[in-house]
């Protein structure tokens, strides 16, 4: 009886701490759009290279990730993306645009 009183709160608190992992991981990176954690979880479930152990954890976590993503919709709509990845991608796009406008230099005749 005493073990149940101790184990149940520990179990439930552990479940609360470990839920929504995909959502948290997706929201700490760059701007991924709406429901990034849920999309990442579904991609992992459909991936053939993901092991059965990981797939079972993702399947257990997916409903909690969907709830967390739903609660974070306002954050997704209004946040600015200042991650390193997005800054590098933006810089590469600007460089690509400049290189497409500037014609290549003429090579000297041999």
What does this protein structure show overall?
The chain is mainly α and 110 residues long. The chain has 6 helices and no strands. The longest helix has 20 residues, at 52-71. The N and C termini lie far apart (92 Å). The model has no long low-confidence stretch (mean pLDDT 78).
Provide the succession of SSEs. HHHHHH
Taken as a percent bin, the fraction of beta residues is under 5%
Contiguous helical run count? 6
Helix vs. strand class: mainly alpha
**Strand elements, count:** 0
* Helix proportion range: over 70%
Task: Note the topology.
Elements: H1 2-17, H2 21-28, H3 36-46, H4 52-71, H5 73-78, H6 84-101
Helix pairs in contact: 2-3, 2-4, 3-4
Entry summary:
The protein is mainly alpha-helical and 110 residues long. It has six helices and no strands.
